[in-house]
Amino acid sequence: MDYLKTVVPSQLLSERGSNLVVINPGSANIRIGLASQDTPLNIAHCIARHTTQVPRRNVQDQLLNSQVSTTQYMEREKAYDTIASFLKIPFLDEEVANNSYPRKMGRVDGYNPQNSRKEPAFDWTDVYEKDPSSSSSLESSENKGTNSEALGQLEDENTKELGSSNRKYKKVIFGEEAQKISPMAPYTLRRPIRRGHLNISQHYPMQQVLEDVHAIWDFILTEKLHIPLRERNMYAAMLVVPETFDSREIKELLSIVLRDLRFSSAVVHQEGLAAAFGNGLSTACVVKMGAQVTSVICIEDGVALPTTEKTLPFGGEDISRCFLWTQRHHQTWPQIRTDMFAKPIDLLMLNRLKESYCEIKEGELDAVGIVHSYEDGLPAGSHKTRLTALNVPPMGLFFPMLLVPDSYPPPPSVWFRDYEDMLEDTWHMEFPRRPEMPDGMYPSMNVGYPMWDTYPVFAAKPKKEEKVGLAEAITSSILSTGRIDLQRKLFCSIQLVGGVALTRGLVPAVEERVLHTIPSNEAIDTVEVLQPRANPMFVSWKGGAILGILDFGRDAWIHRDDWIRNGIHIGSGRKYKDSYFLQAQAMCYINS
After folding, report:
1. Which in 97, 378, 393, 446 has the greatest CB count within 10 A?
2. Among 69-73, 96-100, 185-189, 485-489, which is the least confidently predicted range?
3. What residues have CB less than 8 Å from 446, skipping those under 6 apart?
4. Compositional bias of type Basic and acidic residues: which residue ranges (predicted)?
5. The pTM is what?
6. In a 3-state reduction of DSSP, which class is residue 308?
7. What are the CA-CA distances from residue 420 to residues 112, 458, 517 (Å)?
């Protein structure tokens, strides 16, 4: 402890973080890097593999029900009109020409000071391997002093050869490059994590999911962090996982980290608690808003309260889909084929437009922007377009019927037969299984993911919210603590993390909506969202780095040999300890 009193924080990070890799996997992106770094790598969590199957899928995913039903469409229109009344803008089908509202045109950069320049179009990914023979021929010709005419002929021959059918496709492509592959190319895109869970389905078997996770992580470690397989026994891994992961999924990821990636030791912490540490907080209501899932959990004195956990099945990508629907409904979208499911490059474009132009504010919000069209392998086309109702899509966080999240089929039931419960030491509560109900109906006693809650694994998990807005989830989470002193503190210590937290105008909207959601009989009259000390996108990763560096005892760390030989079993003494129970050492250091 004398060392902790005298050491400079930057020195501590440098000394203890140089051999600690922090991995924070998400549904859309993975944040990974050495704990000694200021910011992690942020890489799209997907992989594209070359395929010769006919017919083939461009995207191998669970997005089997992306069509909006008539009932959902009516609910979406109703939600739009409710939002319009709050924002004081015309209703969905109200003719703009017949209203007296003066039209406001937003700046071309959408008020975003970081987007003051025109964003270029994305380029299609080159899916062919580089031909080493042609490059070596060029080098040898130059070294021998070949004259320019002969060299030109050689280049022409190489060009013809490159354009022939003899070129080899890359076997596998990772990250954003995988998302920018032309639909005409013989590749299948896979996303191993969707909606906060491993993306297991009848079309995407468990073994393929785990192989893809291993391939993506191994590629990043080798090519981006320059940590080859033979040197990884000198590194430890901190795995920062979403609250949505269950024990079986965590165990599979631990096996990848220790058995396949060959780290010497590893430990698991949850995103909510790591986010609190990343912002230097001991007590907070952490709201993690990712690309596909939004989760809420309360932290008290450095301990996560499991019964306060809430999960909402929507995120930033749903706002992007709603952005496209809004523009098409108002007939402002150009006559182009934009399909974010079949063409992931369109999702990249929509995400960028959303981040540049969408914000929450009263009054009509329009802007002029550049929309790009990506047609099968052709160069991108540019369309100058008036974008309208830009403040409506992010309000879907509070009115989720506007977003219409996709329906997913359930994974195989055998996936949940896990007789080695990793959480048995920290959970001593039982929730009754809900009664059998007709298809599509879920009793109010247990609201949650409809595709996961029917399985017995959730008999030992807290209840999860569904079809409620962000304000209701935050309010319900805080009020479930049951103590007025803690509730008041939490309502004044709301922390927004994740990419969606960067939405302009979101902070005052959360404060206002949560305050109006608190029941009138509760003696609470103040709601405050705390300003982040770090980039909201990386604060969970940074918190994981801090937890790993300050965990001097490392009693809960699992060593590779022990994991491979014994795994997890009752009485092993090396059981997985999740982040609900932590040593006070790290928190004392942060508060000092």
Report:
1. 393
2. 96-100
3. 431, 434, 453, 463
4. 116-132
5. 0.81
6. strand
7. 49, 14, 40
Phi, psi of 263 (to 5 degrees): -70, 150
**Rg, Å, the chain Cα set:** 26
**pLDDT (tens digit, 9 = 90+) per residue, 214-236?**
999 999 999 999 999 999 999 99
Residue 404 zone, left/alpha/beta (φ > 0; ψ -120 to 50; rest):
left
The amino acid that residue 246 corresponds to is: D
Name the region of 569 (left: φ>0; alpha: ψ -120 to 50; beta: rest).
Answer: beta
**CA torsion sign, 11 to 15 to 19 to 24?**
negative
Closest CA to 528 of 285, 279, 309: 285
What pLDDT, in 10s, does the model give residues 297-354? 999 998 999 999 999 999 999 999 999 999 999 999 999 999 888 889 999 999 999 9
One-letter amino acid for residue 135 of the chain: S
- Give the three-class secondary structure for 333: coil
Cβ 135 vs Cβ 9: under 8 Å = no
Query: Is the CA virtual torsion 257, 259, 260, 262 positive or negative?
Result: positive
Q: Identify the CA nearest to 273 among candidates 263, 260, 288.
A: 288
